[in-house]
Amino acid sequence: MTDTTTAGTTTAGLGSDPAHKHANPNDIAIGVIIGRTAEFFDFFVYAIASVIVFPRLVFPFTTELNGTLYSFAIFAIAFIARPFGSVIFMAIDRTYGKSAKLIIAMLLLGTATVAIAFLPGYYEIGMASIWLLALARAAQGLAWGGAWDGLASLLALNAPREQRGWYAMIPQLGAPLGLIVASALFAYFTGHLSAEDFFSWGWRYPFFVAFAINVVALFARLRMVVTPEYASLFESRELQPGRVSETVRNEGRNIVIGAFAPLASFALFHMVTVFPLSWVFLFTRESPVRFLVIETIGAAVGVLAIIASGYLADRIGRKPLLIGSAVAIAVFSGFAPQLLDAGPVGESVYMMLGFVLLGLSFGQSSGAIASSFRMAYRYTASALTADLAWLFGAGFAPLAALLLATDFGLLSSGAYLLSGAVVTVLALWISGLRESEEYR
Fold first, then answer.
1. Start-to-end Cα distance in the chain
2. Among 63, 79, 182, 253, fewest CB within 10 Å belongs to which?
3. Cβ(330)–Cβ(384) under 8 Å?
4. What are phi and psi of 127, to 5 degrees?
5. Which residues contact 261 (CB under 8 A, 6 or more apart)?
6. What is the separation of C-alpha 299 from the centre of its chain, rounded to a whole number of angstroms?
7. How far are the Cα atoms of 10, 32, 226, 382 from residue 223, in angstroms, in the given order?
């Protein structure tokens, strides 16, 4: 439950807080979108390479299926490392400030990303190629933990009361926007280069682009967090990094619930992005270029659906929308595998429907429980909730879905999706999220 005393005091002080006059939600939104798009672009560049590049480059000594499973195992390392990154970089934040934290985190992220771009293959350096990939992936995870800037929480706190659903969906736009750019880049290089050129050097270019985008994102976020106005705003809104032990002691229950609340969104997230690409690439004769184009179009549909989620949440409430979309995802799980296995037309319908449902659910899933955090712990608790949500919901999702589909048939992937929807409904029910203006 929210600490009503803290929340009420902060709210009452808004009108008299000079820093609050400088809090333009639209300005904050720009920084949030740029930062999230860069993060998700890195995410999808690596995810796509895990399917079409790393099995051949790093794991050529085994079958394509096993190579993909090994790639997905290394994919998960970043999500295991991310909570540790949050703890480390919050200590840096408390000691040296947000600008130092962000600069170090983004430098680490850029270095790890470029290191992957220069990664030698297994035939060149043997097992060292696997270890270097795992090390770079761990560094990415640590850096993502440090890249948490609190701007999304700041945006939510400064959004007009009647438009909280609208502003809550803005950070989520980074996911489909990052996917659009990543899928389009890989589609271009796989479609315009020979197989030899692509696996030799073409696949490396998206990682160089990721580094450039991270530099732009760093300066955009630094512009926001280091100005005197926003520094004062972070302090006045109590969005300061607290000690993890104290935060867990006081907000542990809400952190755990918040980590499981978006599970339906995360399960569907991978069922329309990474998993179907791996399935099509491994078990059909279709060109990956065609599916990457479908994925790009689907992501554009997802942008529209996320925007629609903001409109709907402000009218019917966030909790009803999240529960309704989880039920819709459960229904979708009953026939989604059949669509994915029904050829090009079925795949296209699967992707478009999937992205519509993903946009409606994912658009409001972030921070659904964060509104229950007391202000004194919101910054750290929100970061830990995001870390655990990604770990439980996304870290092992591609590996689990592909293992289930290959061992028990494609229908089992629908059961995986159904389980995520059930967990989301249970988490929201347990949370007791109130349907009032305070939580909408």
1. 15
2. 63
3. no
4. -60, -20
5. 322, 365, 368, 369, 389, 424, 427, 428, 431
6. 14
7. 25, 12, 6, 22
| pLDDT for 50 | 95
Task: Please report the pLDDT score of residue 237 as a whole number.
Answer: 55
pLDDT for the residue numbered 263: 86
Cα angle 282, 286, 292; round to 5: 90
Angle, helix 64-96 to helix 128-146, in steps of 10 degrees: 40
Angle, helix 397-408 to helix 64-96, in steps of 10 degrees: 160
Q: How crowded is the C-beta side of 117, counted as CA atoms within 13 Å?
A: 18
CA distance 352 to 345: 11
Mean pLDDT for back-to-back runs of 10 residues, the chain (440 residues): 36 38 66 83 92 95 95 95 93 86 88 92 96 96 84 68 82 91 94 91 92 82 69 64 85 85 85 90 86 94 94 88 92 90 89 94 75 77 86 86 89 87 87 46
Buried b / exposed e across 220-233, counting CB within 10 Å, b at 16+? bbbebbeeebbbbb
User: What are the CA-CA distances from residue 221 to residues 5, 28, 239, 298 (Å)?
Assistant: 31, 9, 16, 28
Token output for 64: 């394509």
Bin 280: left if φ > 0, else alpha if -120 < ψ < 50, else beta: alpha
Rounded-to-10 torsion of CA 25, 263, 375, 174: -20
Instruction: Tell me what pLDDT residue 3 has.
Output: 38
- Would you state the torsion angle of the CA atoms of residues 164, 260, 299, 416, taken in this order, to the nearest 10 degrees? -150
pTM of the complete model beyond 0.90: no
Distance from the Cα of residue 83 to its chain's centroid? 14
Name the one residue in this structure whose structure tokens are 């270890």: 131
Residues in the chain: 440
User: Which residue has 């925007």 as its token pair?
Assistant: 307
DSSP secondary structure, 300-364, as one string:
HHHHHHHHHHHHHHHHH-HHHHHHHHHHHHHHHHTTHHHHHTSHHHHHHHHHHHHHHHHHHHHHH
Sign of the dihedral defined by the CA atoms of residues 291, 292, 296, 299, in that order: positive
